[in-house]
Design a protein that fits this description.
Blueprint: H1 6-12, E1 19-23, H2 29-41, E2 44-49, E3 62-66, H3 72-76, E4 83-88, H4 94-104, E5 108-117, H5 133-151, E6 157-162, E7 168-173
Length: 192
């Protein structure tokens, strides 16, 4: 059974009246935890998935939106103008994750969070418990793409990683500045 990284909920459990945007519902494990936090703190959860997950809960603090997560116009017309938490757990491909970050970043309040699930390729390596080529490559590419975004934006947000389960990137917004373009990280890995 895949476990949810508790770092996610520990970081947000004390936010008063949080507006949370969850991208990816599936069976609703994270959805139900977000609903619990929203009920305690007086917040609202908006969850997006291409599958009809509307039966996960009937709680009034939750609104389900059946859509692709990159249907920005539709989603932005439904959610509040500002959000405190963005949780990304949909298509785990670097280009898609980058597009999501850049299109929702301005909505995040200062001191708000972006959580990106599945950033570790380690559990998916050959001969590991999840042994999956697609997930190995995509998670590794996503991990490095997040580093490229951070490299040009370390003045705009803090970045931490948790490597429990399939990994979690934890971004905490420090300023209301516009997010700058990513930069290719030049390493000395192959230098002589």
């Amino acid at each position: 059974i895949i476990k949810i990284d508790e770092n996610l909920f520990e970081n947000i459990k004390n936010i008063k009246k949080p507006n949370i945007l969850e991208l990816g519902v599936q069976k609703g494990r994270s959805t139900l935890k977000f609903i619990e936090i929203c009920k305690i703190q007086g917040g609202k959860l908006f969850s997006v998935d291409t599958d009809d997950c509307s039966n996960v809960s009937k709680d009034p603090v939750w609104k389900f939106i059946k859509s692709r997560d990159d249907n920005f116009e539709k989603i932005k017309n439904i959610i509040p103008k500002k959000i405190d938490v963005l949780y990304i757990d949909t298509l785990h491909e670097a280009n898609h994750v980058e597009k999501i970050i850049y299109n929702y970043y301005d909505l995040i309040n200062k001191d708000g969070f972006i959580f990106i699930d599945d950033i570790s390729h380690l559990p998916y390596l050959k001969n590991k418990e999840r042994n999956n080529f697609y997930c190995e490559i995509n998670n590794q590419e996503t991990f490095y793409r997040i580093l490229e975004i951070y490299d040009n934006n370390n003045h705009n947000f803090d970045l931490n990683f948790s490597f429990k389960s399939s990994g979690l990137a934890i971004i905490k917004k420090k300023t209301n500045n516009k997010l700058e373009a990513k930069s290719k990280i030049i390493t000395r890995k192959f230098n002589i």
